[in-house]
Design a protein that fits this description.
Blueprint (H helix, E strand, L loop, with lengths): L18 H15 L12 E5 L8 E5 L15
Antiparallel strand pairs: 1-2
Length: about 80
């Protein structure tokens, strides 16, 4: 499938990416970016999130690159 990386550039959303899907992904992306994990996932560096569109069956895998954790900036998502 397609992949993209969210970095510190301030442009995390890929061009032509569905806004509804990204809004669904963001609450799962944020803790992974800062070293957190989701207790229900078997792998602490990943999350699986379904697209909210009832007409599709898209499941996103979100994974953290351990060497690319966001710096400790409590007031910034980047």
């Amino acid at each position: 499938g397609d992949t993209f990386e969210i970095n510190e550039s301030g442009q995390p959303v890929p061009i032509n990416f569905c806004g509804w899907a990204f809004a669904t992904l963001w609450p799962f992306i944020t803790p992974l970016r800062y070293g957190g994990s989701l207790p229900w996932e078997k792998d602490p560096t990943k999350a699986y999130v379904s697209c909210p569109d009832p007409e599709t069956t898209v499941v996103f895998e979100i994974s953290r690159k351990e060497d690319k954790l966001a710096p400790d900036k409590p007031n910034s998502p980047f």
